[in-house]
Amino acid sequence: MVPQSLRLQTAVTFNLSVFTPGHNCSPSVYQVRVWPAGEGNVDPAGTLLNITLTKQDLFSMANRYSRRCCFNVTSLRPGSYYRYHVVAENAAGKTPYMGYFWTRNALGSVPIESTSNRLGRASFFNQPAIIVPLTVILVFLLVICVGILFYCRHRRFEAELQPTKPA
After folding, report:
1. Ramachandran region, residue 23 (left: φ > 0; alpha: ψ -120 to 50; beta: rest)
2. How does the average pLDDT of the chain come out, rounded?
3. pLDDT one-digit tens code per residue, 10-38
4. Where would one find coiled-coil regions in this protein (predicted)?
5. Higher pLDDT residue, 135 or 47?
6. Does residue 31 sit in the same domain as residue 86?
7. What pLDDT score was predicted for residue 14?
8. Would 2 disulfide with which of 37, 77, 101, 162, CB 3.0-4.6 Å?
């Protein structure tokens, strides 16, 4: 939705042509939210942009797209990571789309996404540093519980084999 060629240092151009019209029912309204994404930040609490757009608010890009499908987001920080949520609405209903983009840094290049520790950040229980020790502890506790059960059973069988002393 935000092609790399349309990213600048402080602005990006959204291409909403991914919501192609089907059966002559093209989107009439777009709801767009853009917010900076920090370490694991998926909640758009610090929303930078929350806007509703109609076809009249969009523009067409010469030599690229023939119909109105684009809009600009400005006042962004260079080399920053942003998330967005777009909902296209028409008479048939709503179609949501979420994604992310980087702005270009001061040298004009887009940061390599695979070198960032923020991109694709795993949830708490999907991190190896959490799940491996947790699994080891749970297996250890399970072995202890099974051991205690067998020990108690063994003691009970031993008690049954011992003759009781008459009083």
Report:
1. left
2. 75
3. 788 888 777 766 555 678 888 989 888 76
4. none
5. 135
6. yes
7. 81
8. 101
More confident residue, 118 or 97: 97
Q: Do 54 and 31 contact (CB within 8 A), yes or no? A: no
For residues 74 and 61, state if they share a domain.
Answer: yes
Q: Which residues pair with 84 in a beta bridge?
A: 34, 99
30 closest CA partner among 46, 43, 14, 6: 14
Calculate the alpha carbon distances from 9 to 63, 111, 147, 151, 158 in Å: 23, 11, 63, 68, 79
Q: Check whether residue 136 and residue 103 sit in a common domain.
A: no
Cα–Cα dist 32/48, whole Å: 10
For residues 91 and 135, membership in a common domain is answered with no
Q: Are 102 and 77 within one domain?
A: yes
Contacts of 136 (CB under 8 A, 6+ apart): none
Question: What length does the chain have?
Answer: 167
